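Board notes (copied after class):
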Amino acid sequence: MQVLIIGGTGLISRGIVKHLLARGAEVTVFNRAQRENTLPGSVKRLTGDRNQFEDFERQFATTRFDVVIDMICFTPEQAASDVRAFRGRCEQFIFCSTVCTYGVKIPSQVLVDESFPQEPISGYGRNKLACEQIFRCAHDERHFQATIVRPSNTYGAGAPLIDNLEADAVAWDRLERGQPVLCAGDGLGLWQSTHRDDCGKLFAYSALNPRTYGQNYNATREVVFTWRDYYRQAAAALGKTAQLVFMPAAWIVRHDPARFGLLAEITQYHGAYNSTKARRDVPEFICEIGLTSGATETFADLRRRNVWRDSGTDVLYRSMIDEALACGVAPVPA
């Protein structure tokens, strides 16, 4: 099986490559070669900029792959370029979308499945939805068999571990120092986090799986957390107990809307999804890595790369904690 990954060195991509190689696939990645290369030597690397559309399409004009997986398509223009580049040149096209295409409404059964209306509230979600529609059209026109995968929060070595407030969280250093951290609301919002190796299974084992042709899948671990659960399990990776200071999301975002954009757009809302359909069609998609063990790995990788975020110089966060405490808000164990 010949597989091309557009991207290939990012977080989920590393999990995909791992499982594709285990399947005996021959893997090629295409990217700008700007990330640390941790891929096995058997992976072929092509270099280029997918945003240079004519060059990108020309580079693949005489090649054919069984499967193309695009991990870094974020705009309709990029999706249209993919269709031009790979129509008639691959059996299956797998697109990495996002659960952000669903928006923030909650179904009566609480967990969002693939039939839920897609009403994204962010530019990121709207662009991903537009890309999905382009690939569905290409599928209907028989340019290739399209499969859409929608991950939620995915983590692992190679990226920071988010908290409730921000993508590159200073909270973990504060917890290690025995200091309280902020959490929006009452910490009872629902959330899911999936390790990159587990998420990668769905992509890798969807490849040339006819049951996945023309289908959309959520790609989440079946365990649903509250944010209190999340902080407790992540803190356990540091051998600590999380002390949480609960404040309204609007209060937190108001202090720095750009910094706390993750909270404003995503994490203040429930993020709980049903991936039963994915496990039905791709039985290899079994999520085995718990948050504490995955966080331990992620924290070790942050230190190895010398990108562990130091809370000692974070004046804003410290002042927000002081302000909350001065209002009589007491820290609560997670």
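Comment from the instructor: The mean pLDDT is 97. Residues 171-192+223-274+292-333 form a domain with the UDP-galactose 4-epimerase; domain 1 fold (CATH 3.90.25).
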